[in-house]
């Protein structure tokens, strides 16, 4: 099938898509956007988290055909040119990135969390990121990064 | 494989009638796992996410009719006050990403004995609105589940909505698992007090081939509670209720837990849920 969707603000076409293909596969393999990671393909790890019409979802569980004419924002779409999004900066500064595999999903999930709740408690952070696994950091630095990103967001508004 | 994208409800029903083997897909949180892992190669996927008729919910005096595409996140945010038990169950599902996509109708379609929506749907006497080109019928939740991952929809039927009665009284749901998120229930239990009718409704999850009600336990406890005086639950009633619930289960040993553990845990869950609900009733 041939599909059209908006990705990071641009209208994109994908050709030769198999009807059972996931949005994640289309993003990575057909549209050249490898930011969203493929780790489990079963919704367990969150490393493929993207926005679909403004809602944070696992791209591995969205059938590509379901994204037709919808708006997708991936981790690649968060930075403004060379200027990283504050969430991305906070992850770098807090040392929340080790191998980096979980990072894109955590960045999108954190971006979503602080957009909805600019001053989350630690419990709310844990709850919001419960679907994102990290095998390296032990999560403490990630929590630091999220707290810092939330403080920045709160200071802005 | 084909990807069918009906834009309206009548079109979806027509497609399902023409191609009964087409697999409906809503949030995809069950279907896509099977497709990704090659466990299922349906001849067609029938995408229901574009159908406006399925995206809303509406209320009358007796029930809320939840459209098939309403996600767990929306149940929590929009229906938490009126359907507290279903919202509690929804909060325990997966992660935010899963709750943002997954639907109650998808939980029904998957008909897993461990599905978290089922116990409270049973406890409240909910029903499933099934429709095909032949017409519409309401299937009571107790008749909906017919076996492990099997339901009573005909091959040409789709779920249009779930009708959840507005029950005047406290509701509870609890589930056992290894962490607070991303857990398939080892076992689960829901309870609803229908105060005007002086009845307790129950639902057991993940402890039998299908979700089921504990009818003997309901009959016993409905008669044993001091509804008029609102006194504390008499000694022994909670424990007896728990025993009767556990006896209704027919659990198996599997990777998530043993049958004996499930029975034990169910008795504890039942007793505690009853105590919490009764406390709320006493304070109301
Ligand atoms: C990581 C992860 C965690 C999960 N955690 C939980 C959990 O904690 N608790 C839990 O209960 N479940 C859990 N699930 C399972 C799943 O999220 C739920 O069963 C969910 O309710 C499925 O809804 P969906 O809309 O995504 O269904 P889909 O995957 O789209 O469909 C599920 C089934 O229902 C059928 N179907 C869908 N809509 C209709 C309709 N309108 N008419 C007829 N048939 C239909 C489909 O054909 C399919 O058989 C989890 C899944 C994942 C991947
Ligand atoms: S790859 Fe999608 S959740 Fe793991
Ligand atoms: S940094 Fe390696 S998995 Fe998180």
Q: Explain this structure to me?
A:
The complex is a heterodimer of chains A (157) and B (284). Chain A is an alpha+beta fold and 157 residues long. Chain A has helices spanning 23-30, 86-94, 103-116, 122-128, 140-156; strands at 3-7, 10-14, 49-52, 55-58, 71-73. Chain A has 2 domains: 3-77, Ubiquitin-like (UB roll) (Roll), CATH 3.10.20; 86-156, DNA polymerase, domain 1 (Orthogonal Bundle), CATH 1.10.150.120. In chain A, α2 packs antiparallel against α5. The mean pLDDT of chain A is 97. With 284 residues, chain B is of the alpha+beta class. Among the domains of chain B are: 1-48, 2-Layer Sandwich (Uridine Diphospho-n-acetylenolpyruvylglucosamine Reductase, domain 2), CATH 3.30.43.10; 171-283, CO dehydrogenase flavoprotein, C-terminal domain (Enolase-like, domain 1, 2-Layer Sandwich). Chain B is 36% helix and 23% strand. In chain B, α3 crosses α4, α9 (215-224) packs antiparallel against α10 (237-248) and α10 packs across α11 (259-283). In chain B, 52% of the residues are buried. At the A-B interface, β4 of A face α2, β3 and α5 of B. Bound molecules: flavin-adenine dinucleotide (FAD) and FE2/S2 (inorganic) cluster (FES) (2 copies). Chain B: This is Carbon-monoxide dehydrogenase medium subunit. Chain B: Pfam families: CO_deh_flav_C, FAD_binding_5. Chain B: Keywords: FAD, Flavoprotein, Oxidoreductase. Chain B: GO terms for molecular function: FAD binding; oxidoreductase activity.
List the helices and strands and how they pair.
The complex is a heterodimer of chains A (157) and B (284).
Chain A: E1 3-7, E2 10-14, H1 23-30, E3 49-52, E4 55-58, E5 71-73, H2 86-94, H3 103-116, H4 122-128, H5 140-156
Parallel strand pairs in A: 1-5
Antiparallel strand pairs in A: 1-2, 3-4, 3-5
Chain B: E1 2-4, H1 9-18, E2 23-25, H2 31-36, E3 44-47, E4 57-59, E5 63-67, H3 72-79, H4 84-91, H5 96-101, H6 104-110, H7 118-124, E6 127-132, E7 135-140, H8 141-144, E8 145-147, E9 150-151, E10 158-165, E11 171-176, E12 187-194, E13 199-205, H9 215-224, H10 237-248, H11 259-283
Parallel strand pairs in B: 1-3, 2-3
Antiparallel strand pairs in B: 4-5, 5-10, 6-7, 6-10, 8-9, 11-12, 12-13
Helix pairs in contact in B: 3-4, 9-10, 10-11
The complex binds flavin-adenine dinucleotide (FAD) and FE2/S2 (inorganic) cluster (2 copies).
């Amino acid at each position: 099938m041939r599909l059209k969707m908006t990705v990071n603000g641009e209208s994109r076409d994908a050709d030769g898509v198999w009807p059972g293909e996931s949005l994640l596969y289309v993003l990575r393999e057909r549209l050249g956007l490898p930011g969203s990671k493929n780790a489990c393909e079963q919704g367990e790890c969150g490393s493929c988290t993207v926005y679909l019409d403004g809602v944070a979802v696992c791209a591995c569980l969205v059938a590509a055909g379901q994204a037709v004419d919808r708006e997708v924002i991936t981790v690649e779409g968060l930075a403004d040119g060379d200027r990283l999004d504050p969430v991305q900066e906070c992850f770098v500064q807090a040392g929340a990135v080790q191998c980096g595999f979980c990072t894109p999903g955590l960045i999108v999930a954190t971006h979503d969390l602080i957009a909805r709740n600019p001053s989350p408690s630690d419990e709310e952070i844990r709850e919001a990121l419960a679907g994102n696994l990290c095998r390296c950091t032990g999560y403490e630095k990630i929590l630091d990064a999220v707290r810092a990103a939330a403080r920045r967001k709160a200071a802005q508004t | 494989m084909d990807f069918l994208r009906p834009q309206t409800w009548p079109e979806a029903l027509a497609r399902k009638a023409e191609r009964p083997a087409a697999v409906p897909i809503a949030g995809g949180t069950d279907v896509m796992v099977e497709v990704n892992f090659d466990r299922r190669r349906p001849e067609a996927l029938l995408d229901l996410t574009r159908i406006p008729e399925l995206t809303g919910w509406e209320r009358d005096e007796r029930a809320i009719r939840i459209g098939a595409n309403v996600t767990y996140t929306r149940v929590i945010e929009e229906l938490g006050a009126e359907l507290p038990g279903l919202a509690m169950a929804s909060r325990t599902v997966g992660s935010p990403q899963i709750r943002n996509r997954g639907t109650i109708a998808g939980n029904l379609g998957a008909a897993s004995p461990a599905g978290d929506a089922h116990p409270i749907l049973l406890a409240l006497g909910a029903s499933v609105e099934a429709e095909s080109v032949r017409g519409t019928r309401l299937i009571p939740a107790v008749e909906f589940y017919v076996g492990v991952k099997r339901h009573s929809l005909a091959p040409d039927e789709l779920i249009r909505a779930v009708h959840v009665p507005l029950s005047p009284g406290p509701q509870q749901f609890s589930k056992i698992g290894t962490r607070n998120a991303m857990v398939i229930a080892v076992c689960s239990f829901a309870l609803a007090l229908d105060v005007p009718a002086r009845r307790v409704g129950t639902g057991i999850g993940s402890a039998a081939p299908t979700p089921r009600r504990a009818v003997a336990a309901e009959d016993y406890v409905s008669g044993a509670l001091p509804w008029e005086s609102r006194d504390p639950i008499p000694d022994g009633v909670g424990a007896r209720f728990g025993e009767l619930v556990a006896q209704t289960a027919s659990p198996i040993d599997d990777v998530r837990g043993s049958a004996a553990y499930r029975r034990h845990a169910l008795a504890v869950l039942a007793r505690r849920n009853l105590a919490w609900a009764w406390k709320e009733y006493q304070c109301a």
